[in-house]
Design brief:
With 224 residues, the protein is an alpha/beta fold. The strands form 2 sheets. Strands 1-3-2-6-7-8-9 form a 7-stranded mixed β-sheet, sandwiched between helices. The protein has a two-stranded antiparallel sheet with strand order 4-5. Helix 4 links the parallel strand 8 and strand 9. The two termini are 29 Å apart. The model has no long low-confidence stretch (mean pLDDT 94).
Length: 224
């Protein structure tokens, strides 16, 4: 499947004999190195053999920024409505799914793969993970939202029904108001997904307390 889809540029870190993979997708205007910075703050188990994969989104014009080109998983056009950008999101989710395929081809059981992201990257992680055709370990959504939540059931995979999710958000996020994230959480909870939900007194960012909670969640899902 991966040979039919162009994989994004990426870099990774982890042991050659990794037994789990964590794919992390960055937000608008950043690149993979942006999320690399969280690794020193994750309290990983001493025996963890986890590979971290950081893909780069392509550069594209962004309507909300006056058409300026920057790395983005999809365009944001306020005039088109909150759930615009569906074609870009579907294409980026297909790339993310192909990255999961790549990890499986390298010997990682999909049940030991987590996909996650921040902001735009979290949107793609949710879209790709919830629709992936084989069972994953979980999905991480940081300061993000569920795209087109009213029609999400059309895009779900039975293989990942009731998949564990970790979601965290800032109470004063000016970019993605927390109520938008909470709406997606409620939708997923009603559909049977166990969502580990975390709120913090911060804006559109990542805090240390959040990373400590994420570390504990990852350890629970991936430790052997």
């Amino acid at each position: 499947m991966t040979d039919a889809i162009d994989l994004p540029e990426l870099f990774e870190t982890g042991p050659d004999d990794a037994n789990a993979s964590i794919l992390l997708l960055h937000g608008l205007g950043a690149d993979g190195h942006d999320l690399e910075g969280i690794l020193p703050h994750l309290r990983l188990p001493a025996d963890a053999r986890w590979r971290f994969v950081f893909p780069n989104a392509p550069k594209r014009p962004i309507s909300i920024n006056g058409g300026m080109e920057m790395r983005a998983w999809y365009d944001i056009d306020p005039a088109a409505g909150l759930d615009s950008g569906g074609d870009d999101i579907a294409a980026s989710a297909a790339q993310a799914a192909a990255l999961i395929d790549r990890e499986e081809a390298r010997g990682i059981n999909p049940a030991r793969i987590v996909i996650g992201g921040f902001s735009q990257g979290g949107v793609i992680a949710l879209e790709a993970g919830l629709g992936y055709r084989r069972r994953l370990a979980g999905i991480v959504g940081l300061s993000t939202y569920l795209h087109d939540h009213a029609r999400i059931t059309e895009r779900l995979s039975l293989a990942n029904a009731e998949l564990p999710l970790f979601m965290a958000h800032g109470l004063t996020d000016p970019m993605i108001p927390i109520h938008r994230a909470a709406t997606g959480r409620s939708t997923l909870t009603e559909l049977g997904y166990p969502v580990s939900w975390h709120e913090y007194p911060m804006g559109h960012e990542i805090c240390l307390e959040e990373l400590q909670a994420l570390s504990a969640w990852l350890t629970q899902k991936l430790a052997r």
